[in-house]
Amino acid sequence: xxxxxxxxxxxxxxxxxxxxxxxxxxxxxxxxxxxxxxxxxxxxxxxxxxxxxxxxxxxxxxxxxxxxxxxxxxxxxxxxxxxxxxxxxxxxxxxxxxxxxxxxxxxxxxxxxxxxxxxxxx
Length: 122
Known about the structure:
Elements: E1 7-10, E2 16-24, E3 38-46, E4 57-64, E5 69-70, E6 76-77, E7 83-87, E8 98-102, H1 104-108, H2 112-117, E9 118-121
Parallel strand pairs: 1-7, 8-9
Antiparallel strand pairs: 1-2, 2-3, 3-4, 4-7, 5-6
């Protein structure tokens, strides 16, 4: 469950390292997001000499959460950290690599390019 002011780790090679959530997109008064949701974030830490700068406002897709996700078959999945992948205005990933595992729900939410770049889909 990701909400405003939550910190996320950037799970791609876009140049951002740490993100802070400004807003969870997807509906009137939507306050929490989970895997597959789009959030508006501010870059809190960035790698030097890249296109992404500290303080820049970006959109990202949540790919991992510490809070468990319940699946339709009754199983649960959870990760060690909260992480997101930066996207552009066409909902395509900014980076060319995605680090770490991502949840299957990301592909089901329509982000097949992110799922294909990931090392592992759980």
